[in-house]
Structure prediction request, 184 residues.
Amino acid sequence: MTDRLPPLAFEQLSTEQQTAAQAIIDGPRGALYGPFVPLIRSPELMEAAQRLGEYLRYRSAIGTRLSELAILVTARQWDQQVEWAIHAPLAIQNGIAPAAVDAIAERRMPGGLPPDEQAVHDFCIELQQHKRVSDATYAQALRLFGEHGVVDLMGINGYYTFLAMVMNGAQTAVPVSTAEPLPD
Prediction:
């Protein structure tokens, strides 16, 4: 598979693209990688996406551990290797059990999840697969995370779906990772 929108040298970028790229480089990500490689072609879209993603990834109401779990479920649903390569190691570093990560990769229900992780997993699976969330699953997430957390959880699903679509369409190259690639 050929990367359709590969990395560009900083010097090749327009002034607007350089400004957008520098904002990402100077932010918590520290580099232009993953979805931002194809998105640099549309700097205004990239800037808007980066701001949304920075909030959802680093400051969401459900916290980093649960955000990383939601990202993994989304990556698996979209067969998105770049998201998986980046976020599977981060999920484990942030407290998601390696066995749960493996189960998600294999499209199995992880066993023995703590209640908050089970609620996030169920919510994301239903939203991604059925395009809706059952009343029972919604009520559990609402009880655990409140309205703010539920809205952020929906936002994480939407944002990482958007990134998955961009990278799947662009055939973005998968970075080196300690994570095993998603199985077919």
